[in-house]
Amino acid sequence: MIIDAHHHLWDLAVVDYPWLKAKGVKRFFGDPTPIQRNYDVEDFRGDWSDLPIAGSVHIQVGATLDHAVKETQWLAKRADATGLPSAIVAFADLSRANAAEVIEDHLAASRRVRGIRHIVSRHPSEDTGTEGRALLDDLQFAHNLRYLRKQDLSFDLQLTPPHLLRAAEVFSFAQGLPVAICHAGSPWSQDAAGLARWREGLKAMAQIPSVVCKLSGLGMFDREWSAESLRPIVETVLEIFDGRRVMWGSNFPVDSLYHEYRDMFEAVRSIVPAELRHQVFFDTANRFYRLGLSSEAG
After folding, report:
1. pTM of the model
2. Which residues of the chain have pLDDT under 50?
3. For position 130, what pLDDT does the model report?
4. Which of 265, 102, 92, 249 is nearest to 183 (CA)?
5. Which of the four, 142, 160, 173, 249, has the lowest number of CB atoms within 10 Å?
6. 195 Cβ contact partners less than 8 Å away, ≥ 6 residues apart
7. What's residue 155's pLDDT?
8. Are 154 and 97 in contact (CB under 8 A)?
9. Which candidate, 296, 295, 294, 287, places its Cα nearest to that of 114?
10. For 274-285, b where at least 16 C-beta lie within 10 A, e where not — what string?
11. Residue 211 in contact with residue 171, Cβ under 8 Å?
């Protein structure tokens, strides 16, 4: 059985997602035109087809600030009706003094809320180069991270390699806050220098026992990927996080721009050693997001 630890759903008539309404605007991951349409649980199930998906974790996906809780409310209704997603990672602006109130609203909206994602950085083409560091240096951000820990919530950390070392300093003082690094730490620059910087940052983050890493969004960094081109990324993550602190996520439908669901799953599965597959494809996500799912079929 498999848990997809990183995916998205949306209904454009219910929640305001500016990037899904902006026609003809390319994003850091490419041209979003093919996915600028509703994507619901039925579409998600159609993409994974007959793979044995036991559960899933929905990650916030760029709703406007005033629609962040509305996204959670909509997801709660879909989960009650369909059984998915199993868990929700919502959005709150942790640089704001009222973040605790927003987090409480998310918790009131759904019992499936397990954490918060506030993106630190995405890609050099969309980051000014300063806002990621400014957020990591923000005392209000640090205060709200500690509030997450008090609420038994986790934090999904999306950032780029230049910010990994500073993030390691910040999260080492977050009082054991569970942190999931999204998209393997976003290794956009895959030349020797870029990969060396990425590895150094991941090693620093891995020194924090409460940090895990996701093998997700890999198609964004390597759109003409093959199992062999993905191998150095996957094997590095498995080595640094000892396999037992790694989980897999499809990043669908964003990564559907580059590949079929099964193709990416099978490629990553072929790289992960057999003795680690239960951890990577089920157990780490089940434990980290407190899903309480059984790995037995049926």
Report:
1. 0.97
2. none
3. 58
4. 249
5. 173
6. 187, 189, 232, 236
7. 98
8. no
9. 287
10. eebbebbbbbbb
11. yes
> Could you tell me what percentage of the chain is helix, strand and coil, using 3-state DSSP and rounding each to the nearest 5?
45, 15, 40
Q: How far is CA 7 from CA 43, 86, 149, in A?
A: 12, 11, 23
Are the CB atoms for 271 and 227 separated by under 8 Å?
yes
Report yes or no: 244 and 284 within 8 Å, Cβ to Cβ: yes
Q: What per-residue confidence (pLDDT) applies to 297?
A: 60
Cα–Cα distances (Å) from 244 to 186, 216, 272, 287, in that order, read 20, 16, 11, 11
The Cα 111–Cα 50 span in angstroms is: 28
Q: What is the pLDDT of residues 12-63, one digit of tens each?
A: 999 999 999 999 999 989 999 999 999 999 999 999 999 999 999 999 999 9
- 């964003």: which residue's tokens? 254
* 8 A C-beta contact, residue 247 and residue 288: yes
Paired tokens of 247: 């989980």
The separation between CA 291 and the C-alpha centre of its own chain, rounded to angstroms, equals 16
For residues 234 and 169, give the distance between their C-alpha atoms in angstroms, rounded to a whole number: 24
Three-state DSSP at 84 gives coil
pLDDT value of position 287: 98
CA atoms within 13 A on the CB side of 48: 21
